[in-house]
Amino acid sequence: MGSLSLTANELLFGQCILGKEMRTWERVMLASSLDHVVVATDDERIADCCRGFGADVIMTSESCRNGSERCCEALEKLGKRYDIVVNIQGDEPLIEPEIIDGVVMALQRAPDAVFSTAVTSLKPEDASDTNRVKCVVDNQGYAIYFSRGLIPSNKSGKVNPNYPYLLHLGISGFDSKFLMIYPELPPTPLQLEEDLEQLKVLENGYRMKVIKVDHDAHGVDAPEDVQKIEELMRGRNIQ
Fold first, then answer.
1. Cβ atoms of residues 40 and 7 within 8 Å
2. Which UniProt keywords apply (predicted)?
3. How far is residue 42 from each of residues 183, 188, 206, measured CA to CA in Å?
4. pLDDT in tens, the chain (239 residues)
């Protein structure tokens, strides 16, 4: 069965998008592959906000170093068995339900993978944005590397307008057994240097399945991103 642990980003608290907070929750509830949806947070303000619209909330400790560790703690506190746990960052208010279902299905169909995620086309203007994580994938659809810098990089050091660069989306699917051992794996040099938790998975030799989707992605990484999100939502008639 599938479970979702929605990691609430503190930046979203107080940042209303078209008059509402935690827009990501609405998108997640439309996915068909999830049996249980939970908000995992260490912030009582976020918890109160989410309980106000009926969300199931699990309080986690402030010591969680990333969303994966927060999901692990939430799973332990739930005390229920799930085959797959999906972590969706709270700063993805435009995440498509079909992408969530695709990430779950990709992990179900790849028994040699312990992790699944999604990528989409990178916009040229986001090439140098370190908040936009880039990804390279092999011919079988498994992740090779993630970086805050532009990858691949060519000899000119410039963006190649003809190359299909990939942008990583804020969603991760875990085999639940692997998720429980993830916090016990020691931090790796690449993970620490890039500050990307996906790299600890790859650097320890585990496989990660990646699906490519058509998604006009824009997370809320800074308060000024809210206006951009609202414009996109109006354009799609999402109220």
1. yes
2. Nucleotidyltransferase, Transferase
3. 17, 25, 29
4. 445 444 544 334 344 544 445 567 778 888 999 988 888 888 888 888 888 888 888 888 888 878 788 888 888 888 888 899 999 877 677 778 999 999 999 999 999 999 999 999 999 999 999 989 999 999 999 999 999 999 999 999 999 999 999 999 989 999 999 999 999 999 999 999 999 999 999 999 999 999 999 987 665 555 565 566 556 666 666 55
With 0.90 as the threshold, say if the pTM is over it: no
Please tell me the distance from the alpha carbon of residue 53 to that of residue 63, in angstroms, as a whole number: 27
Pick the CATH number of 2-116+168-235 from 3.90.79.10, 3.30.750.24, 3.40.50.1820, 3.90.550.10: 3.90.550.10
* Close Cβ partners of 227 (under 8 Å, ≥ 6 residues apart): none
C-alpha to C-alpha distance for 83 and 89, rounded to whole angstroms: 20
The one-letter amino acid code at 18 reads L
Q: Identify the three-state secondary structure at position 139.
A: coil
181 three-state secondary structure = helix
Q: Within a 10 A sphere around the Cβ of 72, how many other Cβ atoms?
A: 25
- Cα–Cα distance for residue pair 93/231, rounded to 1 Å: 13
Indicate the Cα dihedral angle 225, 229, 232, 238, nearest 10°.
-170
Q: How far apart are CA 162 and CA 15, in angstroms?
A: 36
Instruction: Give the pair of three-digit tokens for residue 179.
Output: 């998720």
Tokens of 208: 């990660």
